[in-house]
Specification:
This protein has 87 residues and is of the alpha+beta class. 48% of the residues lie in helices and 22% in strands. It has 1 helix and 2 strands. The chain has a two-stranded antiparallel ribbon. The radius of gyration is 27 Å and the shape is elongated.
Length: 87
């Protein structure tokens, strides 16, 4: 009877060790992925100009500061407008 109890206890210890190992492995993979993606994003060509705090008048007369990103190339590009609600 004591052998089966000892085996169960040792199996639980092995499962805990495997879980810890799996967690460490997942964390390492996540950090590697994060590092590689940040390096690749920094390596991208930043072919745009940024105008910060451009004041845009809304229909109710309030002016909102806006950041405008414009491509440096003379080609036509689609526009993305993101505006959050204000009180």
């Amino acid at each position: 009877m004591s052998k089966s109890v000892n085996n169960n206890v040792s199996n639980i210890g092995k499962e805990d060790n495997m879980r810890k190992f799996f967690r460490k492995k997942c964390i390492i993979y996540f950090l590697m992925l994060f590092f590689i993606s940040s390096v690749l994003l920094k390596a991208e060509d930043q072919s745009y100009l940024k105008d910060s705090n451009v004041m845009i008048r809304m229909s109710d007369g309030i002016q909102l500061a806006t950041d405008v990103y414009k491509p440096t190339k003379g080609e036509k590009f689609p526009v993305i407008l993101i505006r959050t609600p204000y009180d």
